[in-house]
Amino acid sequence: MPTYIPIETGIPLRAVASDLLAFVWKTDGIAADFKLPNDPAHVLRVSFDRPCIVRLSDEMAISTEEEDTPIDGLIPNHFAYRLEGARFSRFQSETWKDIFGPATHYQFVTGWGCMDVLSGGSPSFSIVAQGS
Length: 132
Fold this sequence. Notes:
The chain is mainly beta. Helix content is 13%, strand content 42%.
């Protein structure tokens, strides 16, 4: 059964008022910038420093995605989660998992765009100037 485990970023963010603004692949990881609704000069940067499988999608696609059973652990207007038992993670390449090791499924939810990440690394969160 898919279970959402909330992650605290340490940075206040109303998820419904945010959006994914930028995404960058790196050699061994990713960086994604999310809108800070009350701070147009800065963004919340979520980054991983290990290889990743990533899915970017509209929030509507996530909210209508069929899972095997009901989803537990969602909190209204929360941004970051670690997921257990979700279809996205279960159906990924076993070869990729064999090469890069066990991966954890993370999901970052906004009012418009969402990002799923499978990685052996953990996310880091920082506030940076928009466009940097």
